[in-house]
Specification:
The chain is mostly helical. It is built from 4 helices and 2 strands; from the N terminus they run H-H-H-E-E-H. The chain has a two-stranded antiparallel sheet with strand order 1-2. Helix 2 (about 35-60) crosses helix 4.
């Protein structure tokens, strides 16, 4: 069981295919790499909000009024594990801003299944994961 929920894993090939289709769809409707990353972040944001709402209903450990750091720790551990099968590699607090945290994943699942063409050379599909985290924080 994960987070008090019956565990239902999605095959990596299924996720890879679906995510690849999302990227390909958005590639046809953008002009720049940053615009594509923003679209992927928006998709992640919408899913992140819904995912946290689902978690809040199913997980007895979830506390909506928890402190900011507790929520970020919950996302980087329990939510990350439910989404990607492992905890995030690290969680760090910004030295520049008090309310800024960075969740690090050294091998983001979203970057495993995407072959980036030369014209999109700097594309980082992990912006989808950033959107998920931001959506969960906004929920």
């Amino acid at each position: 069981k994960t987070m008090g929920i019956e565990s239902r894993e999605v095959s990596l090939s299924g996720f890879g295919y679906l995510f690849s289709e999302v990227v390909q769809y958005h590639v046809r409707h953008i002009e720049t790499v940053s615009e594509l990353e923003r679209k992927l972040e928006d998709v992640g944001f919408a899913l992140g909000r819904r995912f946290l709402e689902f978690v809040a209903i199913k997980d007895s450990n979830w506390k909506r009024n928890a402190s900011e750091i507790n929520i970020v720790q919950y996302i980087s551990s329990s939510c990350w594990k439910a989404l990607y099968g492992k905890n995030a590699d690290s969680l760090e607090r910004s030295t520049e801003r008090d309310r800024e945290y960075m969740i690090y994943d050294t091998k983001p699942l979203t970057n495993h299944y995407i072959s980036v063409p030369k014209e999109l050379g700097s594309l980082d599909c992990a912006s989808f994961m950033a959107g998920l985290a931001t959506g969960m924080l906004d929920a």
